[in-house]
Design goal:
By secondary structure, the protein is an alpha/beta fold. It contains 16 helices and 11 strands. 48% of the residues lie in helices and 12% in strands. Strands 1-2-3-4-5-6-8-9 form an 8-stranded parallel β-barrel, surrounded by 6 helices.
């Protein structure tokens, strides 16, 4: 009998275990990605908040820290996305993950270079479309997941997607230990993808003050709001969110304009580049004018908490699973513990 933890995802990525660390902006740094890769998992570098030159340097840094496969995440509509695609190809990155606004030309360029294409979706119909566009493996994120999320729980979304696609599927939303990994495999998934659990590891760059807010949160403290950027966003309720929800339309407009200017400095993009990016996002995602205007809010607000260590003054993206986590292991300790626990659960079921 083969190893139940060796799945099609392991073969596609070239890794030991079907455990994926997702690309959280400001969090999925070269150190976290390499820590995951060296422990046998698949780490994704967060380049969606980077200028192309920064992304290239970060990819090079991961290469210095590990000789294991890893992936890069980016937004296909972000300024300089074409240059990030070229960096992915040039440096032999194993996989690229993306969501929203798939660009057929980018996907074709990467697939020709042997890059595994890994979109994240929140609906079965989106999974079908992603596969038609060339996805090699699909991540489905249920409503329990952090950041931008949907309303369908993982337990319903996963079987719905498995019924309509033949490529490997990774389950995200609500996973943090080996029991969850065993459950996902039993459902028919080829592994799990986790964000919040990896955010709370020793290699994560998140400041202690912010980590403490995650540890203090209960499951009921992780809520969905549209006040961040106009789209459903799962976050930990804090003082900043309370202020956002009390704001008027005028304060939302002023905040969005300020965020846009701050994001321009952060990304190094010109105003025409940002406008083209916003128009592409609005067209492909069918965003309202308000949502398009607010798009820069999320990276700016998240940076305050994840980089500056000001958890009361920024956004804390989180899966509901934060309410079950109270430790900060290394990536190796996390993955080894998950593998051991998953094997024990699967053996108990077989017995």
């Amino acid at each position: 009998m083969g190893d139940p933890l060796h799945t099609r995802a392991c073969d596609l990525f070239g890794v030991r275990y079907p455990i994926v660390q997702t690309a959280m902006g400001w969090v999925a740094t070269p150190e976290l990605v390499a820590g995951t890769a060296n422990a046998g998992g698949m780490g994704f570098l967060a380049c969606a908040v980077m200028h192309p030159d920064e992304a290239d340097a970060a990819i090079r840094r991961v290469r210095e820290l590990t000789d294991q496969p890893f992936g890069v995440n980016f937004l296909m509509e972000q300024p300089g996305a074409d240059r990030i695609v070229e960096s992915i190809v040039e440096h032999g990155v194993r996989a690229a993950s993306y969501s929203r606004s798939p660009n057929a030309a980018f996907i074709e360029r990467m697939k020709k270079a042997g890059v595994v294409c890994v979109p994240t979706v929140g609906a079965a119909r989106h999974a079908e479309k992603a596969v038609k566009l060339g996805a090699d493996i699909v991540v489905i994120q249920g409503g329990e997941g952090g950041g931008h999320t949907g309303v369908v729980p993982t337990s319903l979304l996963l079987p719905a997607v498995l019924d309509v696609v033949d490529v490997p599927v990774l389950a995200a939303g609500g996973f943090h230990d080996g029991r969850g990994l065993a459950a996902a495999l039993a459902w028919g998934a080829d592994g799990v993808a986790m964000g919040t659990r990896f955010l709370l590891t020793a290699e994560s760059p998140v400041p202690d003050a912010t980590v403490d807010r995650y540890f203090a949160a209960g499951v009921a403290d992780v809520v969905v709001t549209r006040e961040v950027d106009g789209m459903p966003h799962r976050v930990i309720r804090n003082e900043f969110l309370d202020r956002l929800e009390r704001g008027s339309s005028l304060t939302r407009l002023a905040r969005a304009l300020a965020s846009g200017l701050e994001y321009r400095k952060m990304s190094g993009a010109s105003i025409p580049e940002l406008l083209r990016s916003a128009l592409a996002m609005r067209s492909s995602d069918k965003l309202t004018p308000t949502q398009t205007l607010m798009a820069a809010n999320a990276p700016v607000f998240i940076q305050r908490a994840m980089v500056d260590g000001r958890p009361a003054d920024g956004v804390l993206p989180s899966g509901q699973v934060a309410g079950l986590i109270s430790d900060r292991p290394t990536c190796a300790q996390l993955i080894e513990g998950m593998v051991e626990q998953a094997r024990a659960r699967l053996a108990a079921l077989a017995g």
